[in-house]
Amino acid sequence: MTTPAPRSGGFAEPYGHSSGANLADILERVLDKGVVIAGDIRINLLDIELLTVKLRLIVASVDKAKEMGIDWWETDPALSSRARRDELARENAELRERLARLEELEPGSTRKEAP
Known about the structure:
Blueprint: H1 19-33, E1 35-45, E2 48-59, H2 62-67, H3 81-105
Antiparallel strand pairs: 1-2
């Protein structure tokens, strides 16, 4: 039984020397072009639909996703500090408006009117 000779400093490389470069090339192509994987899972019992799961997976670079019109991460407060600031500013404005309306309705309001 013959075993492959170890490389200098380690074990024999099982997939050849260029597998790292090939993987990088494939990843670069996928991110540049984009890949969409779509599927639906349905669970039925006696012709009654119990559960439907729709799966959509897009693998692409940020630039390619923006070209396709996908930019949801820019408006998600959990992922974008700008979206978080915008949401806080909007919420702050709404609360100030509600407070002003409540103070106008309250007969014994402590709010001072401008002369």
